[in-house]
Amino acid sequence: MEFEKIQEIVAQVLNIQPDEITMSSTFIDDLGADSLDIFQIIMAIEEEFGIQIPNEAAEHIVSVGDAAEQIKNAKSQ
Q1: 37 is catalytic
Q2: Model-level pTM?
Q3: Which of 27, 44, 66, 77 has a CA positioned 20 to 30 A from the CA of residue 10?
Q4: Does residue 51 contact residue 29 with C-beta atoms inside 8 Å?
Q5: What is the DSSP letter of 63?
Q6: CA 9-53-59 angle, 5° bins
């Protein structure tokens, strides 16, 4: 469920098709995101899931799977 929501957010921010996004997709290399795109994606994820991702954790979000892991970590706190 989280993956589908992340897919929607990433697809909207990057203006790509959701089916191009996998858990192993990296934001910069695979999806062509820049640092502003990643910031927008993280902000949208925080809003969608009602969580707060600390800056030091956000710096380690490289792939869609990393983003999903941060959501799980934030929800478990």
Answers
A1: no
A2: 0.93
A3: 77
A4: no
A5: B
A6: 90
